[in-house]
Amino acid sequence: MIQSCEKIRPLPMAAIVYLAFEPAWLALSRQERGEIAGQIGTILARHPEVAFEWFDADALAGGYSDFAICRFSDMRAYHHLWEELRDTVIFSKPYARIVNVTTGIENGFQDYEANLQSAAVAEAGDA
User: Fold this and answer.
1) What are the DSSP calls for 9-70, one per residue?
2) Residues 91, 98: Cα–Cα separation, whole Å
3) What are the extents of the domains in the chain?
4) Which of 26, 44, 73, 114 could share a disulfide with 10, CB 3.0–4.6 Å?
5) Can you give the pTM of this predicted structure?
6) Domain of life, per the record (predicted)?
7) Mean pLDDT, rounded, for 24-38
8) Nearest to 14 by CA among 45, 47, 51, 42
9) Is the dihedral of CA 38, 42, 24, 56 positive or negative?
10) Residue 118: what pLDDT?
11) Diameter over CA atoms, the chain
12) According to the model, what pLDDT value does residue 2 have?
């Protein structure tokens, strides 16, 4: 019989989304870019379960111009945010494209080790 060792709790996760903005984006006026960025801000506000930080990397990196760090504990919330973002003109024109995404679980090894320990205690109790 399988027993639950502990109540399932959300794991803190993060994703780094690397983006490359196209020349068409730079051809827009700063006012036009600001208006589009405002639309993105409205979308981000609709997804408070995802903390979103934007970084400009043009002068500091190769292969991408910007990146975003998203922190979340619900993969569905993160996915829904990006589905909505991908429906915007930034990705449909396209003014930008996603180059790469790196995801991870914060200190995931600690959760795994705690689970091993709980399972060992549960097995000892069944003996």
Assistant:
1) -PPPEEEEEEEEE-HHHHHS-HHHHHHHHHHHHHHHHT-TTSEEEEEE-TTT-SS-SEEEEE
2) 9
3) 13-126
4) 73
5) 0.82
6) Bacteria
7) 96
8) 51
9) positive
10) 76
11) 71
12) 47
